[in-house]
Amino acid sequence: MATPASRAKRPAARGGTAPAKPAAPAAPPRAAGARPGGRILADALVAHGIDHVFAVPGESYLDVLDGLYAVRDRLHLITCRFEAGAAHMAEAHAKLTGRIAAAMVTRGPGACHAAIGVHNAMQDSTPMLLFVGQIPFAETDRDSFQEVDYRRMFSPLAKWVTQIDQAERIPEIVAHAVDVAIGGRPGPVVIALSEEMQRQSVTVPDIGPAPVTPAHPDLSAMRRLGDLLDGAERPLAIIGGTLWHEEGRAALHSFLNGNNLPVCVGFRRQALYDGTAETYVGDLGVGSDPALVARVREADLVLAIGTRLGEAVTQGYTLFDPGGATAIVHVHADATEIGRVFRPALGIVSCPNAFALAAAAMEPHAAPWGEWTAGLRRLREAGRVVPRLSGALNLGQVMHDLAGLLTDDAIVTTDAGNFAPWATRFINFKPGQRYIGPTSGAMGYGVPAAVGAKIVQPKRMVVALVGDGGFLMTGQEIATAFHHGVAPIVIVFNNQMYGTIRMHQERAFPGRVSGTTLTNPDFARLMEAFGGHGEVVEATAAFIPAFRRAVDSGRPALIELRTDPEQITSRTTISALRAGAARPAPPAPARKRAVPKKR
Ligand SMILES: Cc1ncc(C[n+]2csc(CCOP(=O)(O)OP(=O)(O)O)c2C)c(N)n1
Ligand SMILES: [Mg+2]
Fold first, then answer.
1. Of ligand 1's atoms, which has the minimum distance to the CA of residue 416?
2. Which of 268, 425, 443 most suits a substitution to test ligand 1, by most atoms within 8 Å of the C-beta?
3. pLDDT tens by residue, 319-344
4. How many angstroms is it from 419 CA to the middle of ligand 2?
5. What local confidence, expressed as pLDDT, does residue 584 receive?
6. pTM of the entire structure?
7. Cβ atoms within 10 Å, residue 428
8. 324-330 long-range CB contacts below 8 Å, 24 or more apart?
9. What is the pLDDT of residue 555?
10. Of 333, 371, 395, 572, which residue is the least packed, with the fewest Cβ within 10 Å?
11. Which atom of ligand 1 is nearest to the CA of 420?
């Protein structure tokens, strides 16, 4: 095995009285074009257009770090403070750009911390590579220091898990990992890098992405779609999924808006559609408007485009009849997602962008459903009217004010929690804006996603929305923002509790508060300790000036919204939940649940 050049060049110890060490043997000359594994890997990432790697370093991948040093003019190494943060940043990068992204962590503890990011990328269908420095291959199965079998550990979490043990296979395996991650239903691939392999010096050519034509809808399927639309009176589109590109999104808008079809976005997929369009009628996920959900049940044709028909979107698998009574056209890149729970009237295996382009090219339909669409939009707008709420801080008004303060190309990231639907209920995101969040419901996503987004798109305004619980999971990634010179704005909704769980608790066990209260630091001062700008907002009118000062500071900023704990969601209070729990249960809904609700 060749000694890596970086180590051979280490300067000898100078001066002092210590006995001189014998000179290290000179590195054998490398064959022309030979590179150490660490460098081959770095070149492979560049070959696949990966321009950022989000990482927490480890001694298990020193040679790769050295390879990344060699390509630092083409690939930015982003040093993070926690592996979950690194993985979330990479995932947000992929969501934002529609391209595969990469994170890198050390073995054992580093991989364990990063696991949440893999789970999230899988649930969210986000293409991502997670590289894990591995123990020396020669020590396998001795339960050696930080040893983990990643194939076993990640197999239920990732789309594919592999390990590279020979440097000459790096280009091949990375290329296949990229294909697996972006193919069909996109997802994460975990690649362990055995230690000796990183030092092996071999001659092997780089391999770039393959020019593969994405799956397209065939003509007969598009004709059938046209027929179904011709027969529809109350059609509705549900859109979602990842890997949408700008052209695809524009075509999707042209097809849906052009045919005056009402559009729901899937859970946390607001980024896909212009919320200001008269055809945008809301989101289907956790915390959706119950009135919208009721109307969706009345649809006679559902176009599910790019989205999975998963638990959140289908309201616990209750939205449609699994047997096929609701006519569904399901468009998805992965054939096995179509008909997984709900049998469709028409399934189309297609890249969502290719479908959108084909659909936009169809003749416009007569669209006799004008009143149906207008009614749904009226419902959306009625839901956005700011209600009278308890407490001095009306979050409904604050969200309207925030909408007025966001730039036209702002990126809003969200964490998971009860605070999140305040934004999605009251803000109609503009077409140039992006709203990205964890459809997996992973707390701790919002701040790293904002830091990652701001690093990748430094000119855009980036705002993170996060609860007091979620902020203290990964809020320290603010240090990463400072380190890399970017300034996101974090809005912390402080209700001094794990509010979502408290809500469920009050429904199931009213008045018996167990494990859901929190004692918090002074969040604004905490941001100041990092070197940033901190604000506390306790009354509605104070938000606008506080946000402006945060923007003007030019530094990472945090605005703590001290919210009324009683106002547990935008639609209900703790007292109302307790009163509701005391009343006898309402009659069971007409439609039976297809799958029992997970807890
Ligand atoms: C990593 C992780 N841990 C636990 C949960 C379960 N959980 C869902 S929401 C929630 C509370 C969130 O609290 P906070 O961030 O303060 O937001 P709030 O609901 O109070 O608005 C918890 C604990 C989760 N979804 N993710
Ligand atoms: Mg909270």
1. 9
2. 443
3. 998 777 889 999 999 999 999 999 99
4. 7
5. 53
6. 0.91
7. 18
8. 326/299, 326/300, 326/302, 327/228, 327/232, 327/300, 327/301, 327/302, 328/301, 328/302, 328/303, 328/304, 329/225, 329/228, 329/301, 329/302, 329/303, 329/304, 330/304
9. 98
10. 371
11. 21
